[in-house]
Specification:
heterodimer; A: 292 residues; mainly alpha; Four Helix Bundle (Hemerythrin (Met), subunit A); 2 domains; two-stranded antiparallel sheet; 7 helices; 70% helix; B: 530 residues; Cytochrome C Oxidase, Chain A; 68% helix; globular
Chain lengths: 292, 530
Amino acid sequence: MSTQTHDKYFVPTPSLYPVILSGGLLLLTMGFIFSTNSYAAGKWLMLLGLVLMISMIFRWFAKIIAESQSGMYRTWEDKSFRWGMIAFICSEIAFFAAFFGALFFARIISVPELASFDPAFTMYKDFVATWPSAGPGGHVLGRDYQPAQFTPMGAWGIPAINTLILLSSGVTVTWAHWGLLKNNRRQLVWGLFFTIALGLAFIGLQAFEYHHAYTELGLTLGAGVYGSTFFMLTGFHGFHVTLGTLMLIVIWLRSIKGHFTPEHHFGFEGVAWYWHFVDVVWLGLFVFVYWL
Amino acid sequence: MSYSTTVDHEEHHDHPSGMLRWLTTTNHKDIGTMYLTFSLIMFMVGGAMIMAVRAELFQPGLQLMHPEFYNQLIGVHALVMIFAALMPAATGFANWMLPLQIGAPDMALPRLNNWGFWLLPPAAILLTLPFTLALFGIGDGAIATGWTFYAPLSVQGGIGVDFAIFAVHLLGISSVMGSINIIVTIFNMRAPGMTLMKLPLFAWGWLITAFLLIATIPVLAGAVTMLLTDRHFGTHFFDAAGGGDPILFQHLFWFFGHPEVYILLLPVWGFIPQILSTFARKPIYGYKAQVYSLCAIGVLSVVVWAHHFFTAGMPVPALLYFMYSTMAISLPLAVLFYCWIATIWRGSMTFETPMLFAIGWIILFGIGGLTGLVLADVAADAQYHHTYFVVAHFHYTLFAGGIMGIMAGVYYWLPKMTGHMYNEKLGKLHFWLTAISFNLTFIPQFFLGLAGMPRRIPDYALQFSEFNMISSIAAFTLGLTQLLFVYNIVSCVRGGKKATDKVWEGSNGLEWTLPSPPPYHTFNEQPVIR
């Protein structure tokens, strides 16, 4: 091999993880399809796929961490990870944009339009365009749909608290980063601990809010386009917060074990970027889903 | 340049052999080969499906299949050709050639690269499995809505829609992973001195493609996710009774779908000038103008989507906006055409197979572009929408502009990849048969469309009989001709006249300085570009 190891880019050795991960994903999706179409075997396929996927993700990341700890990633590789994470977060932004697009389309175009037709020619005579709306109701796609009676979710209760929680968690993760840069390990570990605690508090409050919506407000996934967009946006965001919290827990455990140096800590920064991204998306949710 | 020192690594392989080599590989050349092979297989699968469709359309009336099965065939044909044949072919070239062209030791994220490929076979299984399941009484076959998934039809559809939704999810993850890899490779792995404005045009085309994929594939994923919840979890995104709107699905779908056209074509626009310049023995004309045009097309492609459903009902200002913005794309595209023609203008041309395909490509893709301009006209589109005119138009862009471009690339790079020359006579025969039968297939469809024959219907009025018969016969010829292509590739992989390092007299670029075939690892020490 080349004697100039310094200039060599790290190309990992052949690995079985990706192909097994894909196999797990195939089983998971097929199982999901079968179970949503009432084939009982589906959930066992799902379970098998999920176990395969989780074990592969676990081992893949363990391998990455081991490679990182043995010094195989230097500045050149580090820069690749940075570009990669930026591109990945951009794709996530586009994913959320689709759901925000659906929300804006419903509020600005479809609901007002349903109320705008000439009374002589419309089946939605008494429909008045307001937001939140569960739609005019009617017989569509072989189903009878009566607009659901629900109370919309107010902005200044739990959502406002959740906003404060996420904004504070952005502060604590930055405080942890400062600790890492100063090589103050205590500050790093405690900063991450507070961030995780805030993340868990957010998830808990969100779960409570869902329970409240379903049991007391009559606000469900089936509550017209308001319920659809509300649960799709907040649910998808909640899923991302959960992922982010898991990622934070991983780097917290790594910090306790003494990983990361002030010069070399892409793992930390990648998670922090992701956390800030989830935070910013929440601000959009708070303004457009809850408040306005 | 010091890359010659890397050749001696050929001897000691640091990878497992047999099947395990392909399952586990992190090598960009291996992964590129897998992408290209997968693409070729799926190209034949998708082609077989449409042969059955053309057989049904050979005569008016229903002879061979139920209309439901017909619908499944055309939908899966499109999904297979777009997502499993054309996109993987472009990604395969990117994997093979980008590191060689920019002097990189490998792709930037090799394990991710492997995952990007191995997501494709599961997706192909999801797309085609429902056909088999239906034979065993599970479900009612594959997706029968056409490749566009339009609600409310897709909300009502059977289990095939669910399979297609998740196939699209897997294909989407694969594309995003591939795009991340390509962006990172181009930004971070270039050899010293390889500035952005020295990049081969293929790299530029792919860079913009990757940005488009990252911006639009997730939107498609979001759209089909909403479709899934509408189908199974009681949401009302695309249901007017709940305040939603089926048109919303069309907006989301085509926000992805229109850039998708450029995703399929931009990589081809990247390497065609390289082929033209090689066989005209002249430098590429207007490199900078081409780079800026590619960028302009990338930007414009995400703001024109609604021209795919002018007839769905839109305010007049919206119609006008989408018409003019669509037509604006023809300006940078005209710059590209001008540069392609100027590149071969007064060159000392020879007409090897890649050059034949490249020149045929300019002409046929030109027809595709010009008929697109016709369809962009709101007033004319009301007549042409959802007719065979549209079918002919997009086959001129995607078969001629996409697949034939890919074929040019295959013949151009095959000697470099395999180390053997392909059979030139057979290649030329393949070109002429393809070009002639392609035109005979689709020119009649322009006229059928102008006369009002609707798409996606297995039966038609008697006056369309003759042209459909011509089209079917030509389509069978076109399909069978591709067996020549497969034969030529396979025999070239197995052996043949030894290819030189430079392969073509007029070739230039880093990949032609390497041996043919290049050693397993190249550019472990990066060359310096001056």
